[in-house]
Each structure stands twice: as structure tokens, then as C-alpha cells.
UniProtKB/TrEMBL annotation:
SUPFAM superfamilies from the UniProt entry: Inosine monophosphate dehydrogenase (IMPDH)
Function: Nitronate monooxygenase that uses molecular oxygen to catalyze the oxidative denitrification of alkyl nitronates. Acts on propionate 3-nitronate (P3N), the presumed physiological substrate. Probably functions in the detoxification of P3N, a metabolic poison produced by plants and fungi as a defense mechanism.
Source species: Blautia faecicola
Molecular function GO labels: nitronate monooxygenase activity
Keywords for this protein: Flavoprotein, FMN, Monooxygenase, Oxidoreductase
Classification via InterPro entries: Aldolase_TIM, NMO
Protein name: Probable nitronate monooxygenase
Annotated TM spans: none
Length: 348
């Protein structure tokens, strides 16, 4: 399989491990994927949730722990490529980016909104930048804006499709309208849009496809469309190296296809999760928000049905009946615990 080249960085296996928060992809998983020749990605979403200072100062703790997790991942990665996923909707987004750059991260992948000012935030560093886009329109907007304002292009583009896990870059209507065939057409359109700007700048801009990637065959299909690699999250959750609790991993192993549902996240985006007692209760009962953990800028504690930070922290800790269990469409296909090395060998 052809290597994935991101500027001067080369991943021997063209697989990026998707960033999964809260606490699902931290140094353990990211470092292991990087060590096996892929790109390991740490999610910065409430990354400091395990730290004693988190309750008192969530943002300050997160900014400190970003560096700590990157250092721990480096010790595992054996010189492999490490990235962080930072959501644009994160409160004090710029500070998270600067903390990752300061810690020498190789790559920043950024979605949940378009990272319009990301080039400015990494200026003068060696850190590569990759926006996540889901439509041709989004790809055109970000490339045109970066071209006009910063005279630079992405080092990598991630196309995240409607089968992805967690927060999705689509409206419910779009999720209903896109089929595998029509989304393949959208992928081709995004690739053409990116190539137009790559040609203008005389550089290669690799594009990876995410959302629903579970097997080598899925990767080969993406590459037949013209992609340079894939990003995969769900398959890595049920690995021994994943940073999530064993109880969270078991929810994937026990999930049936009909358990995977689209939910309305409290932060104003649709998302994909495993149906459980928590979701059933929240359909009829609003939670009283006593503390704001300063996670997403679009969240208003005064009218949100529940605190998404608390719900996702419960998932990471294994309190699965009281948790929001984010997952990709293929979570029900996870049948056993695996080693990261074996998965990466399958995709090599």
C-alpha cells in the first residue's frame, strides 16, 4: 500500500486514527497507531478530565494536559507521526492550537466548524494543518479563504462522510438525502476542488476519507475514488491500547445495528451514538445544569437538555448507563478486542 505523504512527513501505512473525545483517543491509542506506521491522533476535547484540577479550572487544565499527553504519546510512538484533533467550536480554540504547536505536534486536524484562521495560529511553526470538510461547498470555502487571506493551502484535507461517529458535519436532512452512491460523487467533487488549488500552488495536497471506514476493502474503495488514505475511529475503540474504559469498549461489542442512532447533541449538532438508558431518559427529562465545563462555544447551559461534558466523561470512565456513547455507523461490527498492530497490518 502506498505511503501517505504530508509534506515532509511520511506515514508508511495510509491510515489516520480519528480523534475521539472525551478521553477515548489519548496518548495510549495515538502513540500505538503512530508506532505502527500510521498517524496517531489525540483528541483535545476535555483532555484533562482525569486531572485533579479539572473541576476547578477546565480550560487551564486542558491546555496543560495537551502537552503532557503529547509527551507521553511521543514515548510510545517510536518516531511516528502524531496529531491532535481540535474542534473549531471549542471555547478558546486559538489557545488549544497554540498549546499543541508549543508542544511540537506534527499535525492539527480541525473540524466541527471551518478553521478559517488556523494558518495564522500555526504561523512560523512546522506543524501541518488539516481541515475537516464534508461537502464540496465547505472545501471550496476553506481553500478560497486560505488562498485569499494567507496565501497557503492545507497540508492535508480530511473528508468526513455521513457514516462518521460523534458530531457530524451535516444537517439531519443531508444525512437522510446522502446515499453511498451520491456521497461518492461528493467525494469526487471535493477531490477535484482540492486538486484545483493544489495545482495553483504547485504542491501535493493529500486527501483522506473518513466515516464508515472499517476494513481494508473500505480503504481500497476510498482510494479508487482518488483518496490518498483513510481516517478511521470506530475500529480502534475495541483495541487493548484504546484509552477508553473497558466498559465503554464493551458497549461497542454488545451493540446491534439497530442500536446505532442519530441524536441531537446539546451543542446544536447532530451526532451518532449507541442508544442506551441515558438517551431514553433524556427524551423526556431535562437535566439541571449546575456547572459549566467551558467546552463548546455553541452550548448554552441555560437551555441545554444535559451537559455533554459530563455525559462523555461518564462514557470514558465506564459509567455507561449515564453516558452519551458516541460511535460510528459500524460500531455494531466490532466483535472482539484487537491489537492496534494487527489492525494496522490489515491496512498495510
Amino acid at each position: 500500500m502506498k505511503a501517505l505523504k504530508i509534506g515532509e512527513l511520511t506515514a508508511r501505512i495510509p491510515v489516520i486514527q480519528g480523534g475521539m473525545g472525551v478521553g477515548i483517543s489519548l496518548s495510549g491509542l495515538a502513540g500505538s497507531v503512530a508506532a505502527c506506521g500510521g498517524v496517531g491522533v489525540i483528541s483535545t476535547a476535555q483532555i484533562g478530565y482525569r486531572d485533579p484540577e479539572f473541576e476547578k479550572d477546565p480550560i487551564g487544565t486542558n491546555l496543560r494536559v495537551i502537552g503532557e499527553e503529547i509527551r507521553k504519546a511521543r514515548a510510545i510512538a517510536k518516531g511516528g507521526i502524531l496529531g491532535v484533533n481540535i474542534m473549531v467550536a471549542t471555547r478558546q480554540y486559538a489557545e488549544y492550537v497554540k498549546a499543541a504547536v508549543k508542544s511540537g505536534i506534527d499535525l492539527i486536524i480541525s473540524g466541527a466548524g471551518l478553521p478559517m484562521d488556523l494558518p495564522k495560529l500555526v504561523a512560523g511553526s512546522k506543524t501541518k494543518i488539516a481541515p475537516i470538510v464534508s461537502t464540496v461547498k465547505a472545501a471550496r470555502v476553506i481553500c478560497r479563504f486560505w488562498d485569499h487571506h494567507y496565501q497557503r493551502m492545507p497540508d492535508l484535507v480530511v473528508i468526513e462522510g455521513p457514516k462518521a461517529g460523534g458530531h457530524l458535519g451535516f444537517s439531519r436532512k443531508q444525512l437522510e438525502e446522502f446515499t453511498p452512491v451520491t456521497y461518492d460523487q461528493e467525494i469526487r467533487g471535493i477531490l477535484a476542488e482540492v486538486k484545483k488549488y493544489a495545482d495553483k500552488y504547485g504542491k501535493e495536497i493529500p486527501v483522506v476519507v473518513a466515516g464508515g471506514i472499517f476494513t481494508r476493502e473500505d480503504m481500497l474503495h476510498a482510494m479508487e475514488l482518488g483518496a490518498d488514505g483513510v481516517q478511521m475511529g470506530t475500529r480502534f475503540v475495541t483495541t487493548w491500547e484504546c484509552d477508553a474504559s473497558e466498559a465503554y469498549k464493551q458497549t461497542y461489542l454488545h451493540a446491534k445495528k439497530e442500536d446505532i442512532v442519530i441524536v441531537d447533541s446539546p451543542v446544536g449538532m447532530p451526532g451518532r451514538a449507541i442508544r442506551n438508558r441515558f438517551l431514553e431518559e433524556k427524551e423526556s427529562r431535562r437535566e439541571s445544569i449546575k456547572k459549566c465545563y467551558q467546552c463548546i462555544a455553541t452550548c448554552n447551559p441555560a437551555n441545554t437538555p444535559y451537559c455533554i461534558t459530563r455525559a462523555l466523561v461518564h462514557a470514558a470512565k465506564g459509567e455507561t448507563d449515564d453516558a452519551l456513547l458516541f460511535c460510528g455507523e459500524n460500531a455494531w461490527r466490532c466483535e472482539k478486542m484487537e491489537n492496534v498492530a494487527d489492525i494496522m497490518a490489515e491496512f498495510a
